[in-house]
Specification:
Helices cover 51% and strands 0% of the residues. With 378 residues, it is mainly α. The protein folds into three domains: 62-172, Cytochrome c-like domain (Cytochrome Bc1 Complex, Chain D, domain 2, Orthogonal Bundle), CATH 1.10.760; 179-268, Cytochrome Bc1 Complex, Chain D, domain 2 (Orthogonal Bundle), CATH 1.10.760.10; 283-371, Cytochrome Bc1 Complex, Chain D, domain 2 (Orthogonal Bundle), CATH 1.10.760.10. It starts with 8 loop residues before the first helix and ends in a 7-residue tail after the last helix.
Length: 378
C-alpha cells in the first residue's frame, strides 16, 4: 500500500522536521562521534568550536566594565597577575622560556600558548575569560566568589605577555630570595618545618615581597601585622569564608601549624607602614583624614580602631592600614561596604562601619591611609 505524500508545503516541512529530529535522536543514542581526548577532532570541528568560543566571548563580555581604579599599566597590578599566573596558569599554558606540563598534550583542546590570545583579545575580554572560565575545556571559572576585581590583574599581565622573554617573566613572576628574612621558623630549630616555611615564604614573596612589604604595591603589606590578624585571615582564606581566587588556593594547602608559623614570621618582620608625606595632603586625602579622625553622622572614626598610637592598644585582630597601597584599600573598602565580607570574628563590625561609605568617601580614605602617618585622633 502506497503512503500518500503530504500535499501541502507545511505537511512536507513537518515530515522533514520529524526525520531530522529522529536522526538527531539516533545520533545521540548511538554516539558515533568519538569523544576520546586521544583522538583528534574531525576536520573542521576544532575550528567550529573555537570560532564559536571567540564569538561567545566577544558577545558576553560586552557587559564587563573596567573599574575606574584599575590601571592596566600599573606595574604592581602586572606583577600581581604574573604571580598568580605562575601558580595557576603556567602549568597548563607554559610561560616564556618554559613549556607547559607534558600532561596537557593529552587534553582536547590543548591549552594554547598565550602570546597569541593575549594579542587577539582586549582587556575586557581577557577579564571575562579568566572570571568565567570556558565550558568543554580545562579552563575553570575564577574560584573567589564575588571577587571579580581580582582577574583584572591577570588581564593587565596578559596584555604584557607577548613582549616578555624568559628573563623579564622571571623578574615579574618568580619570588625574590626570602630566606634571609626567616625568623621564628628557623630560630626554634624545627628543621623540617623550617624548610617548608622557607619554601612558603618564597611563594608568598612573589607578591608580598621577601621583606613582607608588598613589592612596591603588588600585594598588601604583611610585615608587622599582628599574629592574630594574619592567622585569622589565612584561616578565612583557607576555608573560603573570605573568598579570593588568588589567596584561597594557596591558603587551602596550609596546615594549622604552617599558618601559625607564617603568621609569626610576618609579625616579627619590621613594619614600615608609616609614610613620610612631603608638604600638605591633597584635597582628597585631607577629606579622608577628616573622616578617619572624626567620622560622620553615620560612619565611626576609623582611627579609633585602626590608629597606631592607641591607648589602650589596638585590638590585635584589627589590621594596620597606614602605608597600605591605595588600590587595595579601595578594593577592601568596597567589599566591606557592599556585603559582609572577611569571615573573621569582627567582619560584621567592619561591614556596619563601612556600609555608609560613598564612592568618594572610599577614594578619600584610600588616599589618606596610603599616604599618611596614622595616629590616635585628637
Amino acid at each position: 500500500m502506497r503512503v500518500p505524500r503530504p500535499r501541502s508545503r507545511l505537511g512536507r516541512a513537518g515530515v522533514l522536521a520529524g526525520a531530522v529530529l529522529g536522526a538527531l535522536v539516533v545520533f545521540f543514542l548511538i554516539a558515533p562521534y568519538n569523544i576520546a581526548a586521544r583522538v583528534p577532532h574531525l576536520p573542521g570541528v576544532a575550528w567550529l568550536l573555537h570560532t564559536y568560543m571567540e564569538n561567545s566571548v566577544r558577545t558576553w563580555s560586552r557587559g564587563t566594565d573596567q573599574p575606574k581604579w584599575v590601571d592596566l599599566d600599573d606595574p604592581a597590578l602586572v606583577r600581581l597577575g604574573a604571580g598568580h599566573f605562575e601558580n595557576g596558569c603556567a602549568p597548563c599554558h607554559g610561560a616564556p622560556g618554559r613549556p607547559p606540563n607534558p600532561l596537557t598534550r593529552g587534553m582536547r583542546p590543548t591549552p594554547p600558548p598565550l602570546a597569541g590570545p593575549a594579542e587577539d583579545y582586549d582587556a575586557r575580554e581577557l577579564h571575562w575569560i579568566v572570571w568565567n572560565g570556558l565550558k568543554f575545556t580545562g579552563m575553570p571559572a575564577w574560584s573567589g566568589e564575588g571577587r571579580d576585581d581580582e582577574p583584572w590583574a591577570l588581564a593587565a599581565f596578559l596584555k604584557r605577555y607577548p613582549e616578555l622573554d624568559a628573563s623579564a617573566y622571571a623578574d615579574l613572576a618568580l619570588e625574590p630570595d626570602a630566606s634571609r628574612y626567616l625568623t621564628v621558623a628557623q630560630s626554634e630549630g624545627l628543621t623540617e618545618l623550617s624548610d617548608r616555611i622557607g619554601s612558603l615564604t618564597g611563594e608568598c614573596a612573589r607578591c608580598h615581597g621577601a621583606d613582607g612589604l608588598g613589592r612596591d604595591g603588588t600585594a598588601p603589606k604583611l610585615a608587622g601585622q599582628s599574629r592574630e590578624y594574619i592567622e585569622a585571615t589565612l584561616s578565612a582564606f583557607a576555608d573560603e569564608r573570605r573568598p579570593s581566587g588568588i589567596m584561597g588556593p594557596i591558603a587551602a594547602t596550609l596546615s594549622t601549624v604552617e599558618i601559625e608559623r607564617l603568621a609569626a614570621h610576618y609579625a616579627d618582620l619590621p613594619w614600615s607602614g608609616r609614610v613620610e608625606v612631603g608638604g600638605t595632603l591633597s584635597n582628597l586625602a585631607s577629606a579622608g583624614a577628616e573622616i578617619a579622625a572624626r567620622g560622620t553622622a553615620e560612619i565611626p572614626s576609623c582611627l579609633s580602631c585602626h590608629g597606631d598610637d592607641l591607648s589602650p592598644p589596638r585590638n590585635p585582630a584589627y589590621p594596620r592600614l597606614s602605608g597600605q597601597e591605595e588600590r587595595f584599600l579601595t578594593i577592601w573598602l568596597r567589599l566591606w561596604r557592599d556585603r559582609p565580607f572577611g569571615g573573621t570574628d569582627y567582619a560584621h563590625v567592619m561591614h556596619e562601619a563601612a556600609r555608609w561609605l560613598s564612592d568618594r568617601d572610599i577614594s578619600a580614605l584610600a588616599a589618606y591611609f596610603s599616604s599618611s602617618e596614622v595616629s590616635r585622633p585628637p
